[in-house]
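Predict the holo structure. Ligand: phosphoric acid mono(formamide)ester.
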Amino acid sequence: MSLSSRHLLGLQGVPREDIQLILDTAQTFKEVLQRPIPKVPTLRGKTVVNLFFEPSTRTRISFELAEKRLSADTVNFTASSSSVLKGETLRDTARNIEAMKVDIVVIRHSAAGAPHFLSRHVRANVINAGDGRHEHPTQALLDMMTLREKFGTLEGLRVAIVGDIANSRVARSNLYGLRTMGAEVALCGPRTLIPAEAELWGVPIFYDVDQAIAWADVLNVLRIQRERQARGYFPSLREYHMRWGITRKRLEKAGKPIVIMHPGPINRGIELDSDLADSEFSVILDQVTNGVAVRMAVLYLLSGETSVD
Ligand code: CP
């Protein structure tokens, strides 16, 4: 009942047994969350610090909720109101955390590798809540939990990740995790948003979204990062929607059931039609619900505690 690593830095190389254990444990915590009092004393006496150097809504709130549901003491840090603005380095921030005897650190950072760096400088367990364009392991775990609930298994499931693959940590973590669990993964998007290295990943790449829809059981639709649009990756948001946007018309043309996921935040009407995001095809809010259970599972399993209740 323990993970093979004391940190969760990414899903690349994480064994199937670890992912299975996290998903099974998350299912137990989902039951806890449905109780009249959705709280257990599992992490009583443990201190968790949430270090968010980048904006977040879902990940940050769900980590904080998960920690409170496990009765941990939590401390929140945001870069905009911290000594980072006065030039403090990540290493110094880490040393200060260490001095305060924190047990678990959750970190989101714009630099790929920041959680790995931290894990080498603190005794606490480190959880990556998204590092640059690298990985976002708890997002992929909650995506896998949602798909396992929907389909019963991940084995043989065909998941097409659509959109800005080049800039997406969600895409990388999903690719690693899903393939380990026996799913098939394909990538789809404009050539400018598929990284050159994707050719080496050994997965189908579709440049035509209708072909991806025809292939897939599930579309994991990524956010178009409008802040990067200035670099001219595609002519306009309107053209992106016309060529790559997931629309009801496109799904109806495919003539088969399909599940729509999105990690959020959604650009409604750009990568995904607004009505589809709220439709019978969508499991987007199930993903958010499962985020709390998955993060409870990761916190619990890394803490070394031996009883859920
Ligand atoms: N999915 C996700 O990481 O969303 P946030 O940026 O709001 O945390």
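The beta strands are 47-52, 73-78, 104-109, 125-131, 158-162, 184-188, 205-206, 218-221, 259-261. Residues 68 and 297 are 13 Å apart (CA to CA).
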